[in-house]
Write a structure and sequence with these properties.
By secondary structure, the protein is an all-alpha fold. It contains 7 helices and no strands.
Length: about 130
């Protein structure tokens, strides 16, 4: 079996190996053996790990490297961690602001895309 990306995911999680093993309901020594590659987890364990770390089985098993979607999920988790530090009313205000920023970003991107298409059509028409 390919080497699992557990070390990388543990570092990213900001939890200790022991804490993760406890949350997964696995003995720390067993989980440690999976991390170093001395034992192979069952498919049920692999699914449990992928769900816990919010990654695909392909990524967990090293079948592909990180992509934008993995970074996006990580950024979303970071945002949620930050939001959870605020009171509910402040969370609502921050979420409203995020939604406004996202809508503005989408409008700007759409405007740029329209301008690029228009420019391309003009260039093609003059050739």
């Amino acid at each position: 079996m390919a080497k699992l990306k557990l070390k990388q995911l543990i570092q990213r999680s900001e939890l200790s190996q022991k804490q993760i093993a406890e949350k997964l309901g696995i003995k720390e020594t067993t989980f440690s053996q999976y991390v170093v590659g001395n034992n192979e987890p069952s498919i049920d364990n692999l699914i449990q790990f992928a769900d816990f770390f919010n990654v695909s089985l392909d990524f967990l098993c090293g079948r592909y490297e990180e992509t934008e979607s993995v970074y996006r999920e990580e950024n979303e988790q970071d945002i949620l961690r930050i939001l959870n530090k605020f009171k509910p009313l402040d969370q609502a205000k921050l979420i409203d602001r995020f939604e406004t920023l996202a809508a503005n970003y989408r409008q700007e991107t759409l405007k740029k895309t329209k301008e690029e298409i228009s420019e391309e059509l003009t260039t093609t028409a003059t050739q």
